[in-house]
Amino acid sequence: MPHATRTCARFRFYEELNDFLPEQWRKRDFDIEVDRARSVKDAIESAGVPHTEVDLILVDGVSVDFAHVLRGGERVSVYPMFELIDISPILRLRPRPLRDPRFVADVHLGKLARHLRMAGFDTLWDNDWDDDEIVRVAGVQRRTILTRDKGMLRRGEVERGYFVRATQSEEQLAEVLRSLQLEPLVVPFTRCRECNTPLEDVPKSAVLDRLPDKVRAHYERFKRCPGCERVYWEGTHYERMRRLFTT
Ligand SMILES: [Zn+2]
Questions:
Q1: Mean of all residue pLDDT scores within the chain
Q2: Is residue 107's pLDDT more than 60?
Q3: 71-95 mean pLDDT
């Protein structure tokens, strides 16, 4: 039937997935052509939503994976990766991924990467890495990509990614902690903000000659980065970051 009418499935995207849709499709049902056979993943991405943002797909009320083929006439509900409503009784596309959260941040998110390290999260960031390298590192090391580039998250080989909405770095940190439900995992001052290496406790006597006078007089607890030799203490920066983590 070469001239058969093209068939459609009726889609609805929930919660923050609407951020990716054109205005006229947000928070309402709309049709996507499936032309008698189209994977649900392909249909979702044709609407502009990266597959990495999707956690649950229901076709006529039944949970399906990305490879599920739509034939036309179905009703498809698409839920975001880190939905705040409780959908735990329903099968997800993958297990909750962030029990041991590790990240690779794109080139524009250097400040966010430093904040995440200060919060204790293993976060790679390199000013010289292009998109290909970020995607490769994320795949090999099973890291979640943090990016403001939706195109990167649409690439097929990306398994885990999060599209950062906020533009200011401290707001980005708050958003990532909240959206990925990381608050309980925050352990401030365990990782070097410059090179991502876990910090070691160091006695004050061992770093005495490297401390500014005021610090030498007022602080007793110190940490040192075995990677780059930086010394950390619980000073003003610590207090500022702690306020960030607890708001
Ligand atoms: Zn370091």
A1: 85
A2: yes
A3: 65
Element (DSSP H or E) covering residue 217: helix 213-218
**What distance in angstroms lies between residue 224's CA and the mean position of ligand 1's atoms?**
8
Instruction: Give the distance (Å) from ligand 1 centre to CA of residue 105.
Output: 17
Å from CA of 200 to ligand 1 middle: 11
Q: Encode pLDDT of 222-231 as tens digits.
A: 899 999 999 9
Average pLDDT over residues 50-79: 90
pTM for this model (two decimals): 0.67
How many angstroms does the Cα of residue 2 sit away from the middle of ligand 1?
63
Contact call for residues 53 and 144 (beta carbons, < 8 A)? no
> 55's torsion region: left (phi>0), alpha (psi -120 to 50) or beta?
alpha
If you measure from the C-alpha of residue 194 to the centroid of ligand 1, how many angstroms do you get, rounded to a whole number? 5
**What integer is the mean pLDDT of 232-244?**
72
H or E segment to which residue 43 belongs? helix 40-46
CA of 25 to the centre of ligand 1 (A): 46
Helix 110-118 to helix 169-179 angle (10° resolution) is: 60
CA of 228 to the centre of ligand 1 (A): 4
The pLDDT value given to residue 98: 52
Strands (DSSP E) found in the chain: 8-13, 30-33, 38-39, 54-59, 62-64, 69-70, 75-80, 102-105, 122-124, 144-147, 161-163, 200-202, 222-224, 231-233
Distance 192 CA to ligand 1 centre (A): 5
